[in-house]
Design a protein that fits this description.
Blueprint (H helix, E strand, L loop, with lengths): L1 E2 L8 H10 L1 E2 L43 E12 L3 E12 L11 E10 L4 E11 L4 E16 L4 H6 L3 E17 L4 E16 L16 E14 L10 E11 L9 E15 L2 E14 L7 E2 L15 E2 L1 E12 L4 E13 L11 E14 L4 E9 L4 E7 L4
Antiparallel strand pairs: 1-2, 3-4, 4-5, 5-6, 6-7, 7-8, 8-9, 9-10, 10-11, 11-12, 12-13, 13-16, 14-15, 16-17, 17-18, 18-19, 19-20
Length: 400
């Protein structure tokens, strides 16, 4: 979902689903613009015209914009991690109060996942904006069975390409509640709870050590904190402003979790309007893990669209950095194009980022089609090339 990204590296299932659905309707994918900058009755800029479906009002020279709109997208998937198949997505974008001209539109929705390697999953999600954007609530529930490959930990393991096939069944519930303070800053708690069962799909060629928790049902529980500063002009297609975010999740045995570890993530997104139809977008991402996490609790490259061009989970370790730049151009008839490039890496210690073998570049481009002119919500199709592979992805909403 433009991001159904929960933004947590707790369970591989959630992370892989996050990378597939591109974090569009949760986590960093949805956020508020500057106060007083968003109104569904405000005329749209030339780059984002009002929705064609908005009915005209009885008054002369005025239009009444629909309070809500549906987005339906059966997205094909061809993933080196999960195989080929389809991701049906349905969402409803709406305003909780017709009198509230400050809050961005709220979103509720659901998504499924079916691929030819017997991966099956579904997720439901919501993000609600209340009382003139004073409160933000994000929730998601995921359940499914994902079949993927484990390459081992570290950049060396990812470069070698040796892997074992795993199957991971599980479910997870996530909730985050934020309150606006001052200067467009939002602070609040987050909680995650779920279970996971990992099994080997085949033991013919075990070129990577089997994870120690294979065959055991694992429960993970965390409490955390989220801090964000959001000045984006539009949460679906920002043309100016920025989004700064920091999250921390603390998994502890005292909470009932099998493992005790910590996960920290920081995101910086910045947007510049070059013209009414040209946008330059920048993204930087940092991840760090402490304690004794399971392998799927580490930082994973290729999830949350950091970066496109890599199989989700092929590169994972204690630390991760990624930075990318994207040029977006609107074309006639609701179409658009984008070109992007970036670099990053994973490491067991921060000093290892200085090694050229740890760096993972990516470059690519894609096509856009505006599903909702009222909200400037795009269908995104991207092809990206990484260090040793390429990926094809589709999503509802921008990558960041």
């Amino acid at each position: 979902m433009g991001h159904i990204g929960i933004g947590v590296a707790a369970i591989t299932a959630v992370l892989l689903m996050t990378s597939l659905l591109h974090g569009q309707f949760a986590g960093y994918g949805i956020g508020a613009p500057e106060p007083n900058s968003y109104s569904q009755e405000t005329p749209q800029s030339p780059g984002s015209p009002s929705d064609d479906s908005a009915p005209a009002s009885a008054g002369k020279g005025s239009q009444k914009v629909s309070r809500g709109s549906f987005v339906l997208a059966p997205l094909p998937i061809s993933s080196p991690a999960l195989g080929s198949g389809i991701i049906p997505i349905g969402a409803y974008i709406f305003s909780l109060s017709s009198r509230d001209k400050i809050s961005p539109p709220s979103v509720i929705g659901a998504a499924g996942l079916i691929t030819d390697n017997d991966t099956r999953a579904f997720a439901v999600f919501d993000q609600l904006f209340l009382k003139r954007d004073t409160y933000r609530f994000t929730g998601a529930f995921f359940q499914g069975n994902l079949n993927y490959n484990l390459y081992g930990t570290g950049a060396v393991a990812g470069n070698e390409g040796l892997k074992i096939p795993l199957s991971q069944e599980g479910s997870i519930f996530f909730l985050e509640a934020l309150r606006q303070l001052k200067w467009n800053v939002y602070v609040g708690p987050r909680v995650l709870t779920g279970h996971s069962l990992i099994t080997l799909r085949s033991d013919d060629t075990l070129s990577v050590p089997v994870p120690p928790d294979t065959g055991l049902r694992t429960k993970l529980v965390s409490l955390g904190l989220s801090i964000k500063r959001d000045t984006r002009s539009n949460q679906f297609y920002p043309q100016s402003g920025s989004l700064l975010g920091f999250t921390s999740d603390f998994f502890s045995k005292t909470l009932g979790s099998k493992y005790s570890f910590q996960s920290y993530r920081a995101t910086v997104n910045k947007y510049w309007s070059l013209s009414p139809k040209q946008v330059l977008a920048y993204n930087a991402f940092l991840c760090a893990t402490g304690g004794q996490p399971p392998f799927y609790g580490n930082c994973m490259y290729g999830t949350n669209n950091e970066l496109r061009g890599y199989e989700a989970g092929r590169y994972l370790d204690r630390y991760m950095i990624a930075t990318q730049l994207e040029y977006r151009l609107g074309l006639p008839k609701r179409f658009g194009v984008a070109a992007f490039g970036g670099i990053g890496g994973v490491a067991h210690e921060p000093i290892e980022f200085l090694r050229s073998s740890n760096l993972l570049p990516a470059v690519g481009g894609g096509l856009r089609f505006m599903l909702s002119k009222q909200h400037h919500l795009n269908l995104r199709v991207d092809i990206a090339a990484g260090k040793n592979e390429y990926t094809f992805s589709m999503g509802v909403g921008e990558a960041f």
